Amino acid sequence: MISRRKFFSITLLMVTVLFLCMCLNNLKDSWNDYAVNKYTETAENYPSKINMYIPGGSEEDSVRQEGAAGATAGETVIARRKVVCVGDEEELCMKAAEEWAAYTKRDIAKRPSLAALGDEGTAAEMLVIDPACVDWESDREIGLLTECVEAGTHLVFCGLPDVSVIKGDAQVRELLGIRKVLEEETNVSGFYLGEGFLLGGETIYLEKESPDADTFLPGSEAFPGERTFPWYLPASGTKVYMRGIPEGAAVKTENYPIVMWRKSFGTAYVFAVNGSFMEGMEGMGILSAMSAEMYSYEIYPVLNARNILLTGYPSLADENAEEMERLYSRSVKQVFQELLWPGISTILEKYGYKATCMMTPQYDYSDDELPDGKQLEYYLKIFNEHFAEVGLSGLCVSDTSAGEKLREDYRFFQDVLGGYDMVSFYAGEMPEEEIEGALQEEMLASARTVIREGPEAEIIGFLTDHVTVQRVLGDGLEYTYKNDFLIRSMATALGYSSMSFDMSRVAYPDEEGDAWEQLSRALGTTVATYGEEYGAFNSTTASECDLRIRQLLALDYSDSRTDDVIRLQVEGVTGPVWFVLRTHNEAIREMEGGSWEELERDAYLLEVTEKEVTLRLGPADERFYE
């Protein structure tokens, strides 16, 4: 027989459990304002294209001077820095240089040839040179380049002249820092990238005999740069950053063919690249790394943003039912809810990532399977709880046009929620004219940022006066060395990475390798790799990244150094902005006006919260941590 006391205790326990299971869930649901997109709340104060800072191209004070006239003893005067690009402005390396100069707030001039350079060559901070625009047989042009170096102007050669020119002209070899042409052509099986150049540390890109599809895709397009080029040996006074690994050649590492290096000429350097590494946006990271080598320190603005985009996720209609039943014994809605989301959320939370889920209510707009409104409410609730952003994908598997798709989506959201403000829009490789048309649709009336893919897309910028664009850097489900090199370059130049994971491959698999079991391993590998290498950078959603793009494009800054103190002034923005500081065997001891975090040796991420910042440095072996 149960005593009254025990009966009361059991009853109290049951009531407590009932309250926890039901009442708290109801309270949580009532507090979850899932029908409102929180990323629209502060849109009124966001900088637009009209606020974008564009360097003015002033002819005076265009050089960064260390110990310049008028400076006090030990002071480095930082005036407006100027880059001159010599070459066809349509060439990819020239476009990369132009973008890099804009993001780092440098003045830039573009000249088609050395003959059109005039006196600018000796006044500029650096010349970025397309070798095709140099007459290598002209003593006058080689003399002009030598004169620029002697005046303290750094030279960056985006490529090299033909090997016959280098082999036959000692003056050209001296300028480029080449001691000897060992072979006119050699094949490499990989590349060695040294530590301290691009962010991310030392790495080896080496072709594997038995490639694993989860970690490496074979073929020339999966490797960065070219794999056949001349074998040069460096001259004295040369520092090598990257080498090729020759196929089957038993030679010492220091005799591997050089790929990226610099030659010292007193107060200036000549940088050279053997191959096509700068013929793309990778050139921005290489230029940032080279600039950091030119001076005792380098400080420049970055986004500080790591993005994970789940494109085509979720879909809310029961589609491709026969295939889903065969592979998973479930409907596509059950697969997405019971298999994908638990796995994805666990992986992202482990490495501190936020997700931007680019929803498509249905993949096939030509069938009779319509999206489920209750599924929409379910996902909006859990995404809100996990701080994930809901964006909209403009893509589908049917031949439905983007405009028609968006009108269908608008009717669906109106029926279920009475409307929903979409801030981010995934356009993939959609042509720019089609994107412009899509932004006119009611479904995208609140859109502030468009995410694009493909090599033609701008990395970051303004698509319209009020809408930004941000580019996906790689397919997170297919790791390649080429993508890895691009991500290292963008982390170095902009503190930015963006990976997409196409979840429509689960619902409409092209091959057995598209089953979720295989794709989840690929997703986990990619997230772990970049989560560990660039974990110091903030994880952001597409809309959070949008604000940082606007801030970066709007700000201007100046910096100076006296002895061990660096002063940084920031203008044009409110709220926090981020910079990367790179040094040479120096570490931050104190910072006023913000906070800092070490990225790797001699590289620091600065969060700047005041208009004026003071940094005190000390020797790297006497580091002080707060």
Q: How confident is the prediction overall: mean pLDDT?
A: 87
Number of helices: 16
Unreliable stretches (pLDDT < 50, length at least 5) are 24-31, 57-80, 210-219
Output the structural class: alpha/beta
* Rg calc: 28 Å
Level of helix content?
Answer: 25-40%
What would the principal axes of the Cα set say about the shape? globular
How far is the first residue's CA from the last residue's CA?
65 Å
Largest sheet: 10 strands, mixed
What's the number of extended β-strand segments? 29
β-strand percent reads: 25-35%
Q: What does this protein structure show overall?
A:
It is a single chain. The chain starts with a helix and ends in a 7-residue tail after the last strand. Helix 9 packs parallel to helix 15 (516-533). The protein has 626 residues and is an alpha/beta fold. It is built from 16 helices and 29 strands. The strands form 4 sheets. Strands 3, 4, 5, 6, 7, 8, 9, 10, 11 and 12 form a 10-stranded mixed beta sheet that branches. The chain has a 9-stranded mixed beta sheet with strand order 19-20-18-17-16-15-14-22-21. It has a 6-stranded antiparallel beta sheet with strand order 1-2-23-24-29-26. 44% of the residues are buried. Residues 24-31, 57-80 and 210-219 have low confidence and may be disordered.
